Request: fold
Amino acid sequence: MKKLSSVFFILILSLVIFTACEDDDDAPAFGNLVLNISGLEDLGSGYQYEGWIMVNGAPLSAGIFSVNSSGNLTKSTFMLDADDLANATAYILTIEPSPDPNPAPSDVHILAGDFSGSSASLTVGHGAALGNDFTSSTGGYILATPTDGGSDTDENSGVWWLDPSAGPGAGLDLPTLPAGWAYEGWAVVDGTPISTGTFTAIDMADDAAPFSGSSAGPPFPGEDLLMNAPSGVTFPTDLAGKMVVISVEPVPDNSPAPFVLKPLVGPVPADATDHTFYMMNINAAATNPTGTASR
Reply:
């Protein structure tokens, strides 16, 4: 009887071991995706970053994270299905609402890169991101207040991205943006960024004129800073010695400040005169986020 009990115990133990091994064989394997990204900004409440890997031509979510005020990712390592990770051809980073009712990627693609071996180099210029790094962008502006009804007393209180020598013509040369993005002009007055409006075409008026006067402005991006001044700022103002900026903004945009992508900046000369065309500086390389995704 004792011998039979021992044999029975051995059989049961063998069955348990076999079943456990069989279960291990059927269990999915996982691998780690590691992000090393710099230059992203805190999106505030209501938005988050989401990564995607392209597998067989389809996007699969590769994790959600935020960025704090110091630019650090709240999470940089993500456990993904090992087969999906091995077969991924590209990594794409998007900006998504939070909470997000749509399981598909948004139109706001900010970084992307193709996998080569174990790593993908992530840039804004990749075709699956913004498709351009903005380093060839150029632009200039004039100071003028064409909406003030003909008065010439506050001409340095407006900025317009137009070239008077071209007829006038467009003062900016910028790449066409993909869906999910728009340009925005800014005047920075005593540390306060003031939006002059968003636009997608350089030879048309932008989408807003809350500070301009009652007369029509020219058909180019820009704004007169004459009324409805933000708190802490007085209009009219003198933009000489101040700063003007062209940024690239996500759509929709929940921030009253310029987004991290600022391809053009223009320190306005201290002795600036109205209706004089001033060129801006290329700033893209300093503000474009970059990084890697490693598997």
Notes: The first helix runs from residue 2 to 26.
